[in-house]
Structures are given as C-alpha cells and as structure tokens.
TrEMBL record:
The keyword Coiled coil applies. It comes from Alloalcanivorax gelatiniphagus. The keyword Coiled coil applies. InterPro entries: DUF3080. Keywords: Coiled coil. Residues 66-85 are annotated as: Disordered. Residues 1-28 form a coiled coil. This is DUF3080 domain-containing protein.
Length: 85
C-alpha cells in the first residue's frame, strides 16, 4: 500500500509540474486556471491525496509504535527481544 501511495504522489507531482510549464507557455487561460485550482488548489484533489497520505502515515506509525516495531524504537532490534514462544 505504501509504495502505491508513493507512486500516486510522484505522478501527481509530475502532472503538476507539466501543467505549470503549460501555463507558462499558454499564458492566462481561465479554463486551465480553473482546472488547476480544482485539482491542485488548497481544497483540490491533490490536497486530499496529501491529507490521505499524511493520515495513513500517522496511523501506520501509531500502530507500529504501539507494537514496539518502529525503526529505531526500543524493541526494533530483534536480537534484544525476549522469546515469546
């Protein structure tokens, strides 16, 4: 899941960069500006994706921390874990 979300974010950045370049070439285009605002504005689709990625990361870190599995955490070194079987 993490890699899929990261791929989506990379694709979003590439598209946003390409549209920025197009806007510089075409100049003032109200239709393109409206479309870019809809997808890349503060409440647009891309902002929703960023919020979802942050939420996913926060919840995942909460879960890993609660289980003592965060990298660099107190129990992340398997050599120091007591046997549970």
């Amino acid at each position: 899941m993490q890699s899929h979300l990261a791929d989506l974010d990379r694709q979003r950045r590439r598209l946003e960069n390409a549209l920025d370049a197009l806007a510089r070439i075409t100049g003032d285009d109200p239709a393109l500006d409206a479309w870019r605002t809809h997808y890349f504005g503060p409440s647009g689709q891309a902002a929703g994706l960023r919020r979802a990625l942050r939420h996913h990361t926060d919840r995942w870190q909460d879960l890993m921390g609660a289980c003592g599995l965060m990298p660099g955490g107190p129990q992340s070194d398997t050599k120091n874990r007591p046997d549970t079987y």
